[in-house]
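Take a look at the protein record below and flag anything odd:
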Amino acid sequence: MKKNYKIGIALGGGAARGYAHIGVLNAIEELNIPISYVSGTSIGSFIGALYASGNLKKFEDKIRSRNSFMKDVLFKLDPVFPKLSIMNGNEVIKVFKEITDIRTFEELNLPLTTVSTDIINNKKIESNSGDLINAIKASIAIPGVLSPTYVNDNLCVDGGLIDPVPLQSIVDMGSNITIAVNLYGLQSSEKQDNKYNIVDIVDRSAKIILNNVTHLSFKNNEPDILIEPPIDQFKGWDFHRSNELIQIGYEKALKVLDTNKDLFI
């Protein structure tokens, strides 16, 4: 490892596709790459917090046993009266609380910054101190799906609206080497045109928008290492396909990190 270099990793949003982050982080651990700073948007903030708390493996063991959409996804929803959202997001926070007793940023093993979006003022809100649980809940609040959450009097939703892969956050934290994980990297679709339906069109359109926003944000500050797991075929609600997503993230990370191993020597 280059003397005194600090490595930061930025974990992007992607709902269930965020399980690929676990595979990426497993590869980093296997290669003994020391991470000094972590940032996360949406599911990236959730996975990033678990990693920074030292409890990611416990979460991985928990989700690897899930393989039924009906039992492990649909019946885990927490619907609310549809005023601001369909669900309140408490089930996600419940899982976090079951895995770790950590409740503040200051208790984490690694510095973490989470990103959410001030939906009223169109501003990026970064959280790196105080109430960790509230910051995660704000960062994962997919508009219309999970309830918005106040962060310091700002009504916040999913950070992916404004910063899908929060690279600048780890730069500001002091990273000399940056790793960005973009879950919306697009490959050519294998599905035939006549097999597309409305869900496919909406899902792929969202991916195209978020992928373009991500790469535009990299124009002035390219990551040293960009990992884009090939997970086009997965939907945001594929939480029951954790084993596949983790494996793909792991294999892609090993390949990319090996190609860039000179950065760590």
Q: What stands out?
A: Confidence is low (pLDDT under 50) at residues 68-77. The first strand starts at residue 7 and ends at 11. The beta strands are 7-11, 37-41, 85-87, 112-118, 123-127, 144-146, 149-151, 154-158, 177-181, 225-227. The two ends are 5 Å apart (CA to CA).
